[in-house]
Design a protein that fits this description.
Chain lengths: 223, 223
DNA sequence: ACCTGAACACCGTTCAAGT
DNA sequence: ACCTGAACACCGTTCAAGT
């Protein structure tokens, strides 16, 4: 039957900072960065846009909180049995996959340097670098290079994904690019043409890991 | 004396795509990403916002064109006398410094994967990788790792810079962060505390290069 | 203490009208 | 062909007024 009261049904649960942030993450994941507006968020939370401002200072803080929320759930758990190399690879893949699932995270994480989520990643990498018996004077550089690579490249990859149409077939797309590379000017793009074939069986995740391994080799080869 | 005509003085030179783009780059450099609006751009070009749309499809295309313009001027010139390692380092530093001067470039470059500006960087790196006598099957991965590192980490660095207040003293800032690191929980942040001291004499540019060298070592150590 | 929603000062973009 | 600028449909944010 029809509702018994005149007033439209409104929110039952109280509006909390937590609920706002998780709704923001959902909006970012489903409708993207341009879809996260205070009006859309308010509608989803069955309230007015002004109410959100009582719990969150503004859009910048909202995005920072959403980013922290995602990173925090990513960085939990640490396999202490693994070799340092394996542990670093696992951590790197964790970040990579998190950026894959939430392509907006990279953008905003970069705007919070030295903040707690990045610091936790840094600490974890650093411990593994120590376990690799890297001399103390070289530890900072080694850990920095790894973290910068991880955040930077995973962020690049996420940005690439965002530009692709959601429906595009991966293989088809790579084939098209590879073909385009083959048709480049042989003088200007000699190298690119040579490796065009390798692009067809290209795997972003594997390529990402291969880069990690190159840095790890570089770190250990120094000793 | 006063002007002889009634109509206010307007633009003399014709409005061209080129003038629009270079004005956009100027606005981005001086007032930042939020300062680039069609209204501000129109005022600077002494016209109305609608006029810009006759030459440029929209804001997305405008940003892409501005990005390409900056990258194109960065990538010119190539020292053929240098060793492969030196050439790659020089190229990397060129990108790093360009991102430093135009901190917005990284953001938008990442949104144009496989497009001409990035392809030119890739080609240059690839040629040096070949010069390093990397086996053909490993060339794609080596060049990708280097390019991803360069774009990713330089982009991270630029994003970091953007978050800093323009007036902040570099040394003071690093000192403050280092001190904060020293006060972290010893259990949770054992490694970070250990390297806090090294942060004081930290140099982003040098650290960036050190990462390049680690990858280069990794690439050549494989052979 | 917490919420509401109209109102303000902006945006990007369009388009009829001008030259 | 190219430009003008008012108008449209949005934003983030504020704030007087409510409970």
């Amino acid at each position: 039957m029809a509702s018994r009261t005149r007033r439209p049904e409104r929110r039952q649960e109280p509006l909390t900072r937590e609920r706002i942030i998780s709704a923001a993450v959902e909006l970012l994941d489903t409708v993207g960065e341009s879809g996260l507006t205070f009006r859309a968020l308010a509608e989803r939370l069955a309230t007015g846009p002004g109410a959100i401002y009582w719990h969150v200072a503004g859009k910048t803080e909202l995005l920072a909180a959403a980013t922290d929320a995602v990173v925090t759930t990513t960085i939990t758990g640490d396999d202490t049995d693994a070799t340092p190399q394996e542990a670093i690879r696992a951590l790197a893949l964790g970040v990579f996959d998190a950026f894959d699932a939430h392509p907006w995270v990279g953008t905003y994480l970069a705007r919070r340097p030295g903040q707690s989520p990045m610091l936790r990643v840094f600490e974890r990498i650093g411990r593994r670098v120590q376990a690799l018996r890297v001399p103390e004077a070289a530890q900072f550089t080694a850990a920095s290079a790894l973290m910068n690579y991880i955040l930077g490249v995973a962020g690049q990859n996420a940005a690439n994904l965002r530009t692709l149409q959601p429906g595009t077939d991966r293989t088809e797309f790579l084939d098209a690019v590879a073909t385009a590379w083959t048709e480049l000017d042989p003088d200007q793009y000699a190298f690119t043409r040579t490796v065009a074939g390798q692009l067809r069986k290209h795997d972003d995740r594997a390529e990402f890991l291969a880069g990690i391994d190159l840095i790890l080799t570089g770190i250990t080869a120094r000793q």
